[in-house]
Amino acid sequence: MDPAQECTITVENGASDNRVLVELVGQVLEAQKEKEKAFFALAERFRILSRAKDLM
Predict the structure, then answer these.
(1) Is 33 exposed, middle or buried, given 0-12, 13-18 or 19+ CB atoms closer than 10 A?
(2) How many whole angstroms separate alpha carbon 34 and alpha carbon 18?
(3) Taking the model in full, what pTM does it have?
């Protein structure tokens, strides 16, 4: 289920506007954390490969 569907379901279930906003902000923060993790994992791979290349 994508965030738009979750928001629609939340609104249909009678959640307050503030609660919907809190949920959306939480989803955005979680997505940002996942992006950061992916970036740092990629940076680490690059660092390892660069170090290996320097040793050759």
Answers:
(1) exposed
(2) 24
(3) 0.61
Rounded to the nearest 10 degrees, what angle do helices 17-55 and 3-12 cross at? Answer: 160
3-state secondary structure the chain: CCHHHHHHHHHHCCCCHHHHHHHHHHHHHHHHHHHHHHHHHHHHHHHHHHHHHHHC
In sequence order, the 6+-apart residues with CB closer than 8 A to the CB of 7 are 20, 23, 24
Number of structural domains (the chain) is: 1
Q: Which domain holds residue 12?
A: 3-55
Tokens of 33: 């954390």
* pLDDT tens digits along 5-51: 565 656 566 678 788 888 889 899 999 999 999 999 999 999 999 88
